[in-house]
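#struct-help
A.M.: can someone run this one for me? Single chain, 357 residues.
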Amino acid sequence: MGLLVRKLLILFLKYGLAIGLLVAVVYRQWEPPGGNGLSHLWHNRILTGEIDWLALVAAWCCQVTATGITIIRWGMLIRALDLPLSGWETWRLGWVGILFNTLLPGSVGGDLVKATLAARSYPDKRTFAVASVIFDRILALWGLFAMVAVAGFFRLWGGGMAEASPSLVVVVHSVAISALVMLVVWALLGLVPSLWAEELAKTMARKAQVLGVLGELARAIVWYRHRPLAVAKAMFITSCGQVLFVLSFFLVAKALGDNPMKETLPGLGWHFLLVPLGMVLMAVPLFPGGLGIGEWGYGALYTQVVGETGRATGMVASLGHRVLGWLVALLGLRAWGATRLSGQNVVSASGKNSAVG
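D.P.: on it. Structure tokens below:
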């Protein structure tokens, strides 16, 4: 009972912090001193129905496709570890993970559910299933860092430096260096033989159960390093998915933002820099799903390019994109129903077999 209370308290604190931050930023930007705040967008765009619905539909399609690409990427990583999960099972469990991550408490709960269900039929490779999810997250993070570095090269170092604030330049430099460090670590992992990683995993398992799990995770990462073609393919489709996420966010901003005020919306090229930075910020574990910090972050990022007039547009774009993500995640309800039915069939079958035995 004490553990349950502690978990509920932590969950309450996380959502309290996230919702509190969201309320605070909305309150401060509802009617800011300079005008053009959220109140302006609410009364002049949303209440009047002056919304670009075609752009919203296009944004939803981009986000659905991008989400599907992330599931395909995870399937490629699963198969690289020799887990014989079928394409249909991968697709179904991937949508279950999206549903849990987006609509249920916690930011990684769906990943844990997905990994657990994937390993249900392969108990001897349970750690590998978890490793596939962890590596999937690492790959996505590096992809965001790389996109920031490339976009920063063209937008900042390529001549647009005067349009951005010095703090944005510092952030871009920091992220680019982080991407380079991750790449160097990845290259060094290629020097670790697979047999050495297996021996290390066995040694750690003999010492303690927790160390054994860490050893298995390390072995799986090294295993990935010795499968460069599979990782390269996963990285390529990761880039395609992230481009679609950027386009989706930009279309939402155009649909809901104050379009007559052109200076409130950065161009599409800038979004290939700003959206990945916002997605990294939303990964902060203290804010489930990036709630609150995402709206604050995108508002702050827009101001780095177009000034204070863009803060409300960045916030409303983040809110709109979040609602769009909820609608996409609802597609996982059918997959979750199929998963529950499959689980009941497994239990029923095992019960009959026991009775016969």
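A.M.: thanks! The chain has a mean pLDDT of 79.
D.P.: also worth noting: The chain is about 80% helix and 0% strand.
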